[in-house]
Design a protein that fits this description.
429 residues; alpha/beta; UDP-N-acetylmuramoyl-L-alanine:D-glutamate ligase; Protein-Tyrosine Phosphatase, Chain A; 2 domains; 8-stranded mixed sheet; 15 helices; globular
Amino acid sequence: MPQWLDYQLGVHLRGIDLGLARVGEVWRRLGAPRPAPVVITVAGTNGKGSTVAFLEAMLAAGGYRAAAYTSPHLLVYNERIRIAGAMVDDVPLVHAFERIETARGDIPLTYFEFGTLAALLLFADAALDAAILEVGLGGRLDAVNLIDADVAIVTTIALDHQEWLGSDRDSIGREKAGVARAGRPLVIAETDPPLGLLEAAAACGAVVLRAGLDYAMQPAGAGWCWCGPGATQLALPAPQLAASCQPANAAAAVTALYALRERLPLPSAALARGVAEAQVSARLQRLRIGAGELVVDVAHNPQSAAVLAQWLVREPAAETLALFGAFSDKDVAGMLQPLRDCIDEWHLVDLSTESERGRDLLSLDTEFGAALGPLRRSCWGGVAAALAALAPRLQAGARVVAFGSFLVAAAALRWSQEAALQVASTHRV
């Protein structure tokens, strides 16, 4: 399996090459597999993974056999492809890669395109009721958009990946609206979506279900109420996922399933159970370390950093340390500014050794100084080294928040697992 992943990184000269022509030709050579009778596609800047988790949990609670394709992964590649709640095993995944390699001939595919085609093949063979596909980048030209969605969701539109999607929310919104289809529902989860998204949705003839107009959420006791078309109301519990944006993600998922109610009917109890039970790693994930805690979050752009800051204000701690690293194409200042008053001490980590897109320490430290001035900070060669140095303070009760990139989140999760194993080994001795 590792050999296949290494090989895929070298098949195409560019890591990202948006467009459906190449991958579409290979998909057709494979028989143009449709992953399931019902397909839900999820696009957006932030909140995609959580929305997929809500959809997955609600469909499972209703007794449906559903699968989900997401990216990137945190610890193992197999996380990207889940069938009936379980990660796909290596053997069928490698077999799918072999089929793709035979079919592609001399057509170059990116790492993401290999994975997308593998997910489509595996889902098509899995006798599913529904498939949930998360867009990797944008929407219109993303490989996931090979499949015509029965319902599409656009979660949020914020400035990210501007070099591929455009320099403003209107341009980015138009790209993400590309997952919509004529005559089919498009759930728009923001109450203030950019005009570009609305215009593109109208131009393609999608049936728009817009937050704040066609559906809404209202606080109700310890939970909240989903208010849908035709005065439909549904009392729902608070999600386990803690960020303030999660009820909006859950509401978008409920709306999508409401639009599919004739094909995938779900009792209200299944919807409520799915909202309550949905989980996804590294979304304000709290890990107890001695008397302290490690909070792991994949916030990697200004919008998601602002959500993290809101949570930190709601959940004060005696001492909060930040562990931060970023990719070179990210708005570092935009991520740091919302957290200026939430962090007592900063620890910057070098990601250039982990990825060619990773920002090196000199660049990161320079941008930090420009954004926040002479605030106290330390620099580290990697996440594991930083956490090892901070371990005594964690044990003593400090809170460490690791964020800025999926790479930071993944390294923090690996470190916590290894720390837990060391503690368990010590106790056995």
